[in-house]
Amino acid sequence: MILNHLWGLYAHPKEEWHTIDARHESFRYSLIHILLVALIPSICAYYSAVHIGWSIGVGEPIRLTAESAMMLSVAMYVALIGGVFALAYLAHWMAHTFGSEPTYTQTLELASYTSTPLFMVGFAALFPELWFVMLVGLAGLTYSVYLLYVGVPILMHIPEERGFIYASSVVTTGLILLVCVMTATAILWSSGFGPAFTH
């Protein structure tokens, strides 16, 4: 069953990482997991932007036109999936430095399962208050980093001390990827691809 590790990663993460390591599903399995979970923030962001409206501070909620919100949601979906694949590639590339020889599918599993809590933060968009989404986002980011630090020694078959440094490197590259996505977004918005608001 797709997403069958989801509950285990929240209820008993260390044991679930051992289960993931023992089974090592196929590339297709990890791909379907990413494609499904990445729908959560995209769909929730679209619905809240068009039908609820974002409350940034005082004043009326800010809404987008359906066409603009759809374009941004599709772009978000593609960026999220691309980010996971890029993170998996960088984790695979760095693994040799830390004495591990994983397959790309193993690092894709690592990237997809550790990014899942961040994707689940998308549900917070259904209550589109900026302070609330930021708090839930911080909690999701914290848990994603925790999953990474727990999962790296298990999936990569390296000692915990070396796994800590490896996981820290993956976190750093993840932050760099995030900055790249934000920069690309700012460039696109300034080039005429910005959101269209309703009046």
What does this structure look like?
With about 200 residues, this protein is an all-alpha fold. Helix content is about 75%, strand content about 0%. The chain has eight helices and no strands. α6 packs antiparallel against α7 (about 130-155). The longest helix is centred in the last third of the chain and has 34 residues, at about 160-195. The radius of gyration is 18 Å and the shape is elongated. The mean pLDDT is about 90.
Give the topology, please.
Elements: H1 6-11, H2 13-23, H3 27-37, H4 39-52, H5 66-95, H6 104-120, H7 130-156, H8 160-193
Keywords:
single chain, 199 residues, mainly alpha, 8 helices, 0% strand
Strand residue content = under 5%
Order of helices and strands: HHHHHHHH
> So what's the overall shape?
elongated
Unreliable runs, pLDDT <50, ≥5 residues? none
Radius of gyration: 18 Å
* Strand-pairing-aware structural class: mainly alpha
How many helices? Answer: 8
Please tell me the overall pLDDT: 88
**DSSP, total strands:** 0
N- to C-terminal separation?
Answer: 45 Å
Question: Main beta sheet: strand number and arrangement?
Answer: none
Give a quick precis of the structure.
By secondary structure, this protein is mainly α.
